[in-house]
Amino acid sequence: MKCITQNQTAATARPSPDESTVRGLFDHWKQIQQERAEAAEAALKCLPLLVEVCAHKTDQSYILRALLFSLWNGKPVDLSDTLRLDWELKKSLCVVIVAFGTEGPVNFFYDAFTTAFSERNLMDWFLEEAGNATNN
Q1: pTM of the predicted model, to two decimals?
Q2: Domain ranges for the chain
Q3: Partners of 108 in beta bridges
């Protein structure tokens, strides 16, 4: 059995990236982080508006609750229910979906939902969705 020599190791090693490649990757990463922070900030503005609609307990409130609970909990939901939402609610829901799970300088994750529903005294109502039958 032969040992690998230093020359063989150097020849088979991956070349180190040049400075411009590293800088490009770093700049791309920073851009993604900025976009995620902006998405989280937008979602932090949209979520309270959606929760406010939930406070009225209309047909759209129950649809929003099911969709938001699914995002928060993973419970299956029929996405075609979004067809029954007003356009503005649908756009706000999409902002929330895109940002959900963002952690960093601006966080938008489970705590954002808990805070938004708790501030309107709707957390118990939100959690009731767990007991509702799934329409799948």
Answers
A1: 0.80
A2: 47-136
A3: 102
